[in-house]
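Appendix C reproduces, verbatim, an entry submitted by the partner laboratory led by Prof. M.T., so that reviewers can inspect both the input and the predicted structure.
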Amino acid sequence: MENIIETPKLALTKQDFESDRMVKWCPGCGDHAILKAVENVFPELGIPKENFVVVSGIGCSSRFPYYMNTYGVHGIHGRAAALATGVKLANPELSVWMITGDGDSMAIGGNHFIHVVRRNPDINILLFNNKIYGLTKGQFSPTSPEGSKTKTSPQGTYEAPFNPGELVIGAHGKFFARVVDTNIKMMSQVFTEAAKHKGTSVVEILENCVIFNNQIHALITSRETKDENQLFLEAGEPMIFGKERDKGIVLRGTNLEVVKIGENGITEKDILVHDPCTEDSGIHVMLASMMPPEFPAALGVIRSVKSHTFEELVWNSVEHEKKTSKLKNVDDLLHTGNTWVKQ
C-alpha cells in the first residue's frame, strides 16, 4: 500500500514574518504602514514561509527585505526587476515580491521595469510613489509634478512626470492597481488580489515622505478631502464616490466625466460599471490617468487580465526541447560538426 504523508495545515501568523531588525525609516513615513500591510497578507496566502522572496533595488523602500523574516535580495539601483525575474525563472514555485520606488523603477531602472511588465513573470511589484528621491535627500524624481521645487530644481521642474499606471498599461501590463498608504485595510485587500494574479502585478502606493515631500498626496489622503477625491474600484460595481455617495463617473463619447446622481436626470444606472478583466485597455488607461482636482484618484484594482506567464512559456519550451531535440547533452552539441544547422 502506498504511504500517504499528511502535511500539517499552515498556521502562519503576522509574527512569523516580522524581522528582528530595527526599522530605520523616519517616524511618520508611509513605509511603516506598507510593511504592516504586507505582514498581514503573507500568512493568509497559504504559501510556506520558505517560499517567499523579497527583492529590492536602492532607495528608502528598498530596505524592505531587511524588515521581513523571509528570504531576500537587496540589489543595486534599478535592477530589482532583473533579479526578481531571474529568481522566479529559476524556481517558479517561489512567491516573489519586488519592492521599489518611483526613482528606482521609473528612472535608472526604467528599461528593466517596462520589460518585466512586458514579459509578465509571475511576480508582485510594490511601487512606492512619494514623487521624490528620499534616500538621497530630496531631488525631483520622474513622477514629481511639473514645477516642483526641490534640491535639484530650485526654480521648479520643467519635465512632464510619468504616470506609473499609464506606463504599465502602455507596456502591455496585465495587472495594475493603486492604493494609499493611509489605509492598511485597502492595501491588504489589494496586495492579496495582486498575489492571486498569475503574472506581473504592479501596485502603485501613493506614499507620503514626511521629510522631503510632505503632504504630496494630501488632496487624496487627508480626512477633509479624501471622500471627494478617492474612487475605490470594485469589479462589477458602478463607479460611485463622494462623502454622500452621490457622484459618479460616466463615459461621454471617448472621455470620462464626473456627474452628480440626481441632477440632469442622472441615475445610478447611468454610472460606468468597472470591468478590470476586459482586454481593451482604453478605459483602464483613462482610470489610471484620473487625478484631483478634476477627477477623484482611481484606487483598487484598475486592470487584471489573464495571460501566460514568462516562466511558464520558458519552461514549456525547455520541456519541449528535452522531448524532441536530438541533442541530449553538451557532448552531443559539441560533436555535431562545425556548422550550425537550424533544427
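The first helix runs from residue 31 to 41. Additional entries are available on request from the coordinating office.
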